[in-house]
Predict the structure.
Amino acid sequence: LGTLWLQGADWRGDRQELEAVFFQVGQITPGNGVKMRGVQVGRVSEIIVEPSGELVRVRLEIEDAVTLPADPVVLLSPESLFGDWQAEIIPRESFPYVVYPIPADPGTLPGHALPDISQLTAAAQRISDNLGVLTDRFGIAFSEETARDVASLISNVENVTTRLSDL
């Protein structure tokens, strides 16, 4: 009984099985929760790479009584800072800018995995490196000498404007 409980066995009623396809699935694993509107409605049961190698298929077992939203998609995301992930069934309009894979099978949901904290940290590092390069280039282009030249130019333009006004 303890083993069944740890595996997430559920005797509460009928379940329905859904499938979703993803370009990549982040850190999701079988047994992770499936949520809808923040409420757990099921579990991830299986994850397989399709034979073509282009997509990953995820099987979800959810409560039979759950009614899916209009135009549903599955979003995989970190559930906590401790590495736990979740699958959430949402309407496509919640993330309209995302490019979802097109499922070959009717009834299969498209899905997307959000980046985890390590991917965000790596992106922040690249941005930081790029800002460092830009700062160095800005420092080279606008040295103390450049500042004096710009001040001299402004003074010269002011003198020319005064002379033109007098003329």
Remarks:
- The CA atoms of residues 64 and 114 lie 27 Å apart.
- The longest strand covers residues 39-49.
- The mean pLDDT is 84.
